[in-house]
Design brief:
alpha+beta, Hsp33 domain, CBS domain Like, 2 domains, six-stranded antiparallel sheet, six-stranded mixed sheet, elongated, binds zinc ion
Length: 294
């Protein structure tokens, strides 16, 4: 039996009082990577963001999704990754056409927006994180420090072939006392600092955790599979077309014969012909009002 290479593992270091999550994306990442034109720096940023979005869903206990979007970062026009609670990931990165030759990087002043949507209650929560030190991992650590008041450590890695992430967080216990022994968090943090990117990307999960934490009494939970998946649908595209208004749609129809929308995440194509467009606005009064008599 082959071990799936797209997974999320949760684990606990009992002695240290630390819980963690390990994510690796292989086929799913190659699918995302293959959908765009990514040079190495942009692929690295996007892969790390996709891995982080999957890592953060490990703590979500409801049906929904979590997305990460980078804003205001120089030549980078768009960087977005999303993971659903049932393990579907998607992502996209786009550079500014005007700055095609500029190297994309995390600029000072850039922000990350982390959005969590609960589909059962139809509620959204959004947090904004500044990218202060030029790397994603430390920006996310700052986010958890502020939002959950728990020490958090994160390592992210990505190549064109794979992306991966490992996160540690101190377990909160009653009365503000941490769950493990006094030196537990310190130890776990120092051990994590010895992890090399190639180990994070390549080692089987059991071997990786054993190599780092073999003295810490590791409890590894069963892997949760991850896969590429897009949440686009004909209904969503219909909503988008409706929001453009009847007139705008009519002018597209007059020019092109049909409205054609291609999803940038999965390349699925949606075609709305004249009858489809008319059906979108069936509840609306006709666009041109009847002339009134004076
Ligand atoms: Zn799609």
């Amino acid at each position: 039996m082959t071990v799936p290479d797209d997974f999320l593992h949760r684990f606990r270091l009992e002695r240290a009082g630390v819980h963690g999550a390990l994510v690796r994306l292989d086929e799913a990442w190659r699918h995302i990577h293959g959908n765009g034109e990514y040079d190495a720096p942009l692929a690295e940023l996007l892969g790390q963001t996709v891995a982080a979005s999957a890592l953060f869903t490990s703590a979500i206990k409801f049906d929904g999704r979590l997305s990460i979007q980078l804003r205001d970062s120089g030549a980078l026009r768009l960087l977005f990754a999303e993971c659903t609670s049932d393990g579907q990931v998607r992502g996209i990165g786009r550079r500014d056409d005007e700055q095609a030759k500029a190297r994309v990087s995390l600029e000072p002043g850039a922000h990350l927006a982390i959005t969590i949507e609960n589909s059962a209650t139809d509620t959204r929560y959004q947090g904004l994180v500044p990218v202060e030190h030029g790397d994603l991992a430390s920006a996310f650590e700052g986010y958890f420090r502020r939002s959950e008041q728990l020490p958090t450590r994160l390592v992210l890695a990505a190549t064109g072939q794979r992306c991966a992430g490992l996160m540690l967080q101190q377990v909160a216990a009653a009365g503000g006392v941490h769950a493990g022994d006094a030196d537990g968090w310190n130890r776990a943090e120092h051990l994590l600092a010895t992890l090399r990117p190639d180990e994070l990307l390549e080692l089987p999960p059991e071997d990786l955790l054993y190599r780092l934490f073999h003295e810490e009494d590791i409890r590894l939970q069963a892997a949760r599979p991850l896969a590429f998946g897009c949440t686009c649908s004909r209904e969503r595209v219909a909503d988008m077309l409706r929001s453009l208004g009847h007139e705008e749609n009519e002018s597209v129809l007059a020019e092109q014969g049909s409205a054609q929308i291609t999803c940038e995440f999965c390349n699925r194509r949606y075609v709305f012909d004249g009858a489809d467009v008319a059906a979108l606005f069936v509840d609306e009064p006709p666009a041109t009002a009847m002339p009134t008599r004076h």
